[in-house]
C-alpha cells in the first residue's frame, strides 16, 4: 500500500508541486495532504510540543496565546533563533558536533520563542540519494529535540532540500511529505503555499518564509502573495522575512549565487520589513541597505566560508534576534564550544560588496559622500515595482 501511495503522490501531485509554477513557486494539489503517504517518522510527541501536527495548507487556526503573549507590555522580549545550513557531504545522514551542541544550547539554555531556518537541512541536490534516511536523521537530531523542548521550528527550503530547478522536482516531493504534517505550533496567518512559503505571528512580529532556492528573482506570483501578506499585517511593529538565497553576495566563491531581486528588495523597503534572513553563503554578516536589515547566517554544518575581501573564515554560529512591543531590539551571533561568545561587530568589515550591491554593517553609518550615493540608490529602489 505504501508503494502505491508514494507512486500516486509522485505522479499526480509531484510534478505540479516540484516544477516551477510561475518561476519556481510550488502548486500543491488540494487533495495531496490527505492522499500522500504521511511522513513515516512523524512522532506524536512532536504534535504535543513544538509541532502542530496534521495541519494542511488551508488550516489557519490560531494557537492559544500564553498570558505573556496576551499582555506583552513594554518589557516583554521575544527571541528568535536562526539555524542555517546544517548539511554535510551529499547524501550524509550524520550531523557534526556543532549541530548537536547548538540544538542542546537552544533547548536547554536559550529556550527561544521560535527557531527559524533559511534552509539546507539535508544534503540533497544530487541523484540516487536516500532522502527518507536523510530526513529521518534530521528529525532525530533537530526537529524532535526542539519539539520535546516545546520550541516551535519554522523552516524554509534550501537548494539542497528542495531546489526549484526542474531537475530536482522529486526532492520537492520529499520535502512536502516531510513537512506537511510538521507545521510549527505558532499562529499561522497564511498557509496557501505551506511548507514552501507561508506566514505566521509570534507575539508582535510577523514572520514570512519564502521559497527562494534558485539564483535570480523570485517569481511574480510569490512576490504578489508576499505583498498581500505584508499589507494585511502592516500594523505589526516587527516584520521578518526569511529565505535561502541572499539578496546580494557576502561570501567568496558565491558571488553569483544570489537573488539579485530589485523588485523584492523594493517591496521589503516599501513595507518596512525589519530584517531579511538568508543562508547559503555560510558566512555571518549583520548588514543593512537603507532601512532594511540583512542577516546573513553562518552555517552550523559543513563548509564555512570567508566574507568578501576577508582572509578569515567565518565561525559557525547561531544568531539570536530579539524584539519587543516597540519593534526590533537586537541581532547577535554566538559562537564557541558552548555558544557563550558574542561575535563582535568589530571583527567584521564595515561593508561588503561594491556599487549597487554594497552592504553596510548594521552598526555603521556611511560617510557623507557614500551616504549621498546610497540615498540615490534607495530612492530608486523604493520607487520601483
Automatic annotation (TrEMBL):
Residues 28-74, 359-385 are annotated as: Disordered. Residues 1-23 form the signal peptide. Keywords: Signal. Residues 80-284 form the Calcineurin-like phosphoesterase domain. Residues 32-42 have a biased composition (Low complexity). GO terms for molecular function: acid phosphatase activity. InterPro entries: Calcineurin-like_PHP, Metallo-depent_PP-like, PAPs-like. It holds the Pfam family Metallophos. This is Metallophosphoesterase. The lineage of its organism: Bacteria, Deltaproteobacteria, Bradymonadales, Lujinxingiaceae, Lujinxingia.
Amino acid at each position: 500500500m505504501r508503494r502505491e501511495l508514494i507512486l500516486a503522490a509522485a505522479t499526480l501531485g509531484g510534478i505540479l508541486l516540484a516544477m516551477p509554477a510561475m518561476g519556481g513557486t510550488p502548486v500543491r494539489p488540494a487533495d495531496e495532504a490527505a492522499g500522500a503517504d504521511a511522513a513515516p517518522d512523524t512522532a506524536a510527541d512532536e504534535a504535543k510540543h513544538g509541532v502542530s501536527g496534521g495541519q494542511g495548507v488551508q488550516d489557519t487556526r490560531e494557537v492559544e496565546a500564553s498570558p505573556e503573549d496576551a499582555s506583552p507590555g513594554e518589557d516583554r522580549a521575544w527571541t528568535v533563533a536562526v539555524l542555517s545550513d546544517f548539511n554535510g557531504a551529499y547524501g550524509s545522514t550524520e550531523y557534526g558536533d556543532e549541530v548537536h551542541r547548538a540544538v542542546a544550547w537552544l533547548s536547554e539554555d536559550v529556550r527561544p520563542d521560535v527557531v527559524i531556518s533559511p534552509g539546507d537541512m539535508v544534503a540533497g541536490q544530487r541523484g540516487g540519494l536516500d532522502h527518507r534516511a536523510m530526513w529521518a536523521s534530521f528529525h532525530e537530531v533537530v526537529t524532535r529535540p526542539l519539539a520535546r523542548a516545546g520550541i516551535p521550528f519554522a523552516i524554509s527550503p534550501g537548494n539542497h532540500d528542495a531546489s526549484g530547478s526542474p531537475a530536482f522536482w522529486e526532492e520537492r516531493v520529499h520535502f512536502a511529505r516531510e513537512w506537511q504534517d510538521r507545521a510549527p505550533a505558532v499562529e499561522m496567518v497564511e498557509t496557501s503555499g505551506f511548507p514552501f512559503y507561508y506566514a505566521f505571528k509570534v507575539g508582535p512580529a510577523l514572520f514570512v518564509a519564502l521559497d527562494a532556492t534558485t539564483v535570480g528573482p523570485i517569481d511574480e506570483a510569490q512576490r504578489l502573495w508576499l505583498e498581500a501578506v505584508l499589507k494585511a499585517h502592516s500594523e505589526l511593529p516587527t516584520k521578518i522575512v526569511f529565505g535561502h538565497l541572499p539578496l546580494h553576495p557576502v561570501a567568496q566563491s558565491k558571488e553569483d549565487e544570489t537573488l539579485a531581486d530589485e523588485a523584492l528588495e523594493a517591496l521589503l523597503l516599501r513595507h518596512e520589513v525589519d530584517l531579511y534572513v538568508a543562508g547559503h553563503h555560510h558566512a555571518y554578516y549583520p548588514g543593512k541597505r537603507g532601512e532594511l536589515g540583512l542577516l546573513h547566517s553562518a552555517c552550523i554544518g559543513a563548509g564555512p566560508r570567508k566574507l568578501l575581501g576577508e582572509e578569515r573564515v567565518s565561525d559557525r554560529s547561531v544568531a539570536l534576534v530579539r524584539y519587543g512591543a516597540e519593534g526590533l531590539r537586537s541581532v547577535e551571533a554566538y559562537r564557541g564550544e558552548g555558544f557563550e561568545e558574542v561575535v563582535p561587530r568589530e571583527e567584521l568589515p564595515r561593508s561588503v560588496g561594491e556599487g549597487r550591491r554594497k552592504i553596510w554593517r548594521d552598526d555603521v553609518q556611511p560617510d557623507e559622500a557614500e551616504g549621498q550615493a546610497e540615498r540615490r540608490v534607495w530612492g530608486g529602489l523604493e520607487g520601483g515595482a
